Amino acid sequence: MKVLELRRYPVKSMLGVVVDDVELGPGGVDGDRALALVDAETGRVATAKHPRLWRSLLRCSAARDGSAVTITLPDGRTVAAADADGPLSEFLGRPVRLAADRPAGAEVERPDPEDVLAQGVEAEVEAPTLEIAQGTPGGTFVDHSPLHLITTATLEHLGVEALRYRPNVVVATPPGTAPFVENDWLGRELTVGGVRLRVTLPTPRCSVPTLEHGDLPRAPHAVRGPMAENRVEVTGFGVLPCAGAYAEVLDGGTVRTGDAVELR
């Protein structure tokens, strides 16, 4: 196995960028999900998991140059993160602020993807709240654990583009590798180049992969596939449709495209 692709998402629920190398530490990829929009009315973190309110975020993209983050809006305008509150509030039709520090107990609203598929992205479905970053130290806005991986075996079987699942690392697996092989990695260690990881949980799938991503159209099969074929126990959350796996960083360092990936 080897690293096929590395991705960083400077702003939660916006499109990110493919990079040649990343620095990994206890909090995951340096600069990943370092920023997020907070709804000024509710105080909750904005995420496309709640498509009726926030799916338009997936039409925006964010890039990082050093410590500076620039956001590109769908009309092509670019704004520095420090100046983005006004333009983003106008674009989204709701007052928001861009936050750089995750408050303790930060929550998102996460409707059941089956409800969204059945009733549509504009439907007012029940949206339970979920505390994010429960498995991650520091103040980033990741969903749970510091790092998210997915294999080409799983992607090719499902017929889904990697960017829809928003992984940090796409692992190229040998021909003949079974889909959802990530399930077998739980509790085991991976070495990626000189970095050592421990796989912590299967990655539950929400509505996000089904939504428009930039110019990509909707793709209901991106969640219907895991619903039909890979409902597994996610410790602390129940039996859920999953694709990919979360991991924690045991020994950090630099990971590069093409690095070997070994299961221990």
Residue share in helix? 10-25%
* Biggest beta sheet attributes: 9 strands, mixed
Number of separate structural domains: 1
- Coarse shape: globular
What's the overall average pLDDT, rounded? 96
CATH superfamily: PK beta-barrel domain-like
CATH architecture label name? Beta Barrel
Number of strands: 19
Order of helices and strands: EEEEEHEEEHEEHEEHHEEEHEEEE
What is the count of DSSP helices, taking H or I runs of 4+ residues? 6
The parts where pLDDT drops under 50 for at least 5 residues are: none
Sheet-strand content, in percent, reads 25-35%
Summarize this structure as a short list of keywords or feature phrases.
6 helices, MOSC domain-containing protein, 264 residues, 9-stranded mixed β-sheet, single chain, pyridoxal phosphate binding, MOCOS_middle, M1 Pyruvate Kinase, Domain 3, 19 strands, Pyrv_Knase-like_insert_dom_sf, alpha+beta, MoCF_Sase_C
